[in-house]
From TrEMBL:
InterPro entries: SGNH_hydro, SGNH_hydro_sf. This is Esterase TesA. The gene is tesA_1. GO terms for molecular function: carboxylesterase activity. The lineage of its organism: Bacteria, Pseudomonadati, Planctomycetota, Planctomycetia, Planctomycetales. It is an enzyme of class 3 (hydrolase). Its EC number is 3.1.1.1. The keyword Hydrolase applies. Keywords: Hydrolase, Membrane, Transmembrane, Transmembrane helix. Residues 119-268 form the SGNH hydrolase-type esterase domain. The chain crosses the membrane at residues 6-27, 34-53, 59-75, 87-106. It comes from Gimesia chilikensis.
Amino acid sequence: MNPIVFHIASGQAFFTGCTLIILAALLSLSQSKLARRGMGLAFLLGVIAVVVSSTPLPWWLYGVLGIVTLIWLLVQFRKPKQRRLSYVVIVVWLAAVGWELPFHLLPRVDPVEDRSLTVIGDSVTAGLGDEQTRTWPVLLNHEHGVTVQDLSRVGATVSSARKQVAETRIKSPLVLLEIGGNDILGSATTAEFETGLEQLLAELAAPGRQLVMLELPLPPFYNRFGLIQRKLASRYEVKLVPKRVFLSVLAGGGATLDSIHLSQAGHQQMADEVWEIVGPAYQTE
């Protein structure tokens, strides 16, 4: 995977953009012409990085960032010696970093007594039907002795997964979801995605059951899908896995067949990444 694409899709570009905007605010405190020119370049690159990252911050927070930054820019043109607003810009963008940072940390999965796992996914998990390929749920079973109920299907969406779950008895105390990519890449509207995902999570939610979901890598300007996923994850107490985890697998050498679907090496890498997250739940000794 192209490093720039990884930087954008993983959400790391958001932090780069925030850093550049904060740098621009710091440079605005200087009276040097060189610093003023650097301020403009840093600000422009920072805004571009934030926009293309599609980071799903709440709209009200984007509104605050936009209004404060716009006022600061207008003041810079009229009263370049005014410094107070530069400090305000630094504070609000640091606050945005603080808001987003927890979504980039690995979730903590609590211990479970039953050594089983249910996986709900699309073709990234199910594979493309090659009988010689051992998918990552199969590898988890073989390598770690976890009984895996694999409900992944090629072409699955949040709506089709909900129907499948409704017809299936799920006993596992831990459910991992790798779902939603086909909704984003397909023709699903955000309203359809929200309805389908909420119904799926409502169907899965049960006392004593933990839900873990891979956060969706988002193309530029697809913030709304991420906002929906985070909102519903919070509502149903779902633990989100940072999107950099899945993307780190795709970025591995020889990990994919077509940049999305996993090769055998990719399934092994995915199994290792997933085990790092869910493994502590089965360490009961």
